[in-house]
Write a structure and sequence with these properties.
With 385 residues, this protein is mainly α. It is 47% helix and 2% strand. The protein folds into three domains: 125 residues, no CATH class; 91 residues, no CATH class; 129 residues, no CATH class.
């Protein structure tokens, strides 16, 4: 997805805070060796292409979110909108366009989730589509943008701005919003041209700030100061939930995938690097850097973690991450090596901890293909203009 131009300065400053390229040779390339990266990525692409069903979906026609993610992953991996596999999936997604403007399966309980990711897929497809297809996709996206705004938890749902759930977005079935769905909601609106100054985006920032273990003027929820490590958790709404569980004092434990998602969402919302929220999140990342597990959850949600980890560090424009011990890590190379080791002979990935459907090779492979985009080798900052 195109990064908002207004965040460029903030991203560069955050990169300076988190790491430095000093001492790196002028001809240094960060990331994996290109031929290996291409080999692993191509095997993943071929697996996903072979796993598509005849109707253009993956796994099940009702798994519209997975199909939209897979479509986006293939497009972001260099396939064009007229590729036969991509074309079938785009037609399938268009067939899910509903009268209310959403793009979801009629029997779903995940209207926001499916619509958000379908918008990302159509946005990615528009770059290589014919003029007629681009016009059609734009029409779908415009209607979906209005639909999503109506789903956001705000005064329309009877909430005051002080409510912990205000500004967030959920799956569409739960009676509360969460950070995972809110990040997809935010990215979908950004891809549809909504700016950070839009009320919907400002409200997203209110919610995201309340998902952080940091007490401040932006977060006065009952959980804000109980842990205070600067990481993020699933939701402060409806009594609060962390997939990593509760601390002894009742605090909501931070964990990896949500911390990267929360930091990325703040950058997209225009939060500056000098802000205490960014500094605290940076400190958590330095203390919990790893490519072996999802910090706080172990192997659960690992492939989702790999995706948010890679995308967030890419958004921050980092070559290296310095951990709390002062060790600098070429995160692209380290993540790639881990992914290559976990890839199965048929090109897919499967999480042996199958929570959140990561036992489905189509979903896990989709997450990794998205992550691989951000792992690709490139010149270090010392040689980039």
């Amino acid at each position: 997805m195109t990064r908002p131009a207004s965040t460029h300065t903030a991203i560069l400053l955050i990169a300076t805070l988190l790491t430095t390229a000093s001492g790196v040779a002028a001809d240094k390339t960060v990331g994996p060796e290109k031929a290996r990266w291409e080999q692993v990525r191509n095997r993943a692409i071929n697996f996903l292409k072979s796993a598509q069903d005849d109707d253009g979906s993956w796994t099940s026609p009702q798994a519209a979110g997975l199909t939209a993610l897979a479509t986006t992953a293939l497009l972001e991996s260099g396939l064009k909108a007229d590729d036969p596999v991509v074309s079938r999936s785009l037609s399938f997604l268009e067939s899910l366009s509903q009268k209310d403007g959403g793009i979801y399966h009629p029997k779903t309980l995940h209207r926001n989730y499916e619509t958000s990711i379908a918008m990302l897929a159509l946005h990615a497809a528009s770059r290589s589509a014919t003029p007629a297809a681009r016009k059609r996709y734009a029409s779908h996206v415009a209607k979906a943008r209005k639909f999503l705004k109506n789903l956001q938890w705000d005064k329309g749902e009877g909430l005051e701005t002080t409510d912990p759930g205000f500004g967030g977005a959920g799956y569409g079935k739960h009676k509360r919003p969460d950070l995972s769905n809110t990040q997809f909601f935010q990215e979908a609106l950004l891809s549809a041209g909504v700016t950070k100054d839009d009320p919907a985006m400002k409200n997203v920032l209110l919610f995201v700030s309340r998902c952080q273990n940091l007490e401040s003027e932006h977060n006065t929820t009952p959980f804000a100061g109980k842990i205070g490590d600067g990481g993020f958790y699933y939701t402060p709404a409806a009594g609060g939930t962390s997939q990593a569980g509760l601390a002894a004092n009742g605090g909501l434990r931070s964990y990896g995938s949500m911390t990267y998602a929360g930091l990325k969402s703040m950058i997209y919302a225009g939060v500056q690097p000098s802000d205490p929220r960014i500094k605290a999140a940076r400190t958590w990342i330095q203390a919990n850097y790893t490519v072996r597990l999802n910090p706080g959850l172990g192997q659960q949600g690992l492939y989702y973690y790999y995706h948010t980890f890679a995308k967030s560090l890419s958004v921050l424009d980092l070559d290296l991450v310095k951990d709390s011990a002062g060790v600098r890590h070429d995160w692209r190379s380290e993540l790639f090596d881990q992914l290559a080791k976990l890839q199965r002979p048929n090109g897919s990935w499967v999480n042996r901890a199958p929570r959140w459907y990561e036992g489905d090779p189509n979903l896990s492979t989709t997450y990794i293909l998205l992550a691989l985009k951000y792992c690709q080798p490139r010149p270090s900052k010392a040689t980039r203009p």
